[in-house]
Amino acid sequence: MAKRNVIWTRTADIQFVGILEYWVKKNKTNTYSKKLVKLVSERTKQIAEKPLIYKSTDFDDTRVASLGNFSIYYKVFNEEIIITAFWDNRQDPKKLLQILENKKAGSSLTGGTGSLR
User: Could you give the C-alpha distances from 43 to 4, 6, 54, 110, in angstroms and in order?
Assistant: First the structure.
């Protein structure tokens, strides 16, 4: 299976950046955020190479890759992976439900590809 491009939706990108900023502010250092960026980058590379190894969800064509307290929700297409949400699992799951129910493939894409994270 060929490696696919990874594209983050605007929603997922905002969520990820918000989480990084939260931890920099909370810890007064960017050490944890750098570690998280590295973990997410490694996981998105795995998703790009073998997108079907992570769990499918109850939402159409959506899969989830867990990173401990965080989850990456994504959709698999022939030539690309669309990351629809980056979620802190300690948040209210009702907010995630709203995001996943309203997210349509191809909407609000950031245009970013590859392993930027």
Answer: 13, 11, 11, 19
Residue 72 lies in a domain: yes
pLDDT of the chain along its 117 residues, tens only? Answer: 568 899 999 999 999 999 999 999 999 999 999 999 999 999 999 999 999 999 999 888 999 999 999 999 999 999 999 999 999 998 877 877 777 777 544 444 444 444 333
Segments forming the whole domain that contains residue 50: 5-102
Q: How many domains does the chain fold into?
A: 1
How far apart CA 9 and CA 23 sit, in angstroms, is 22
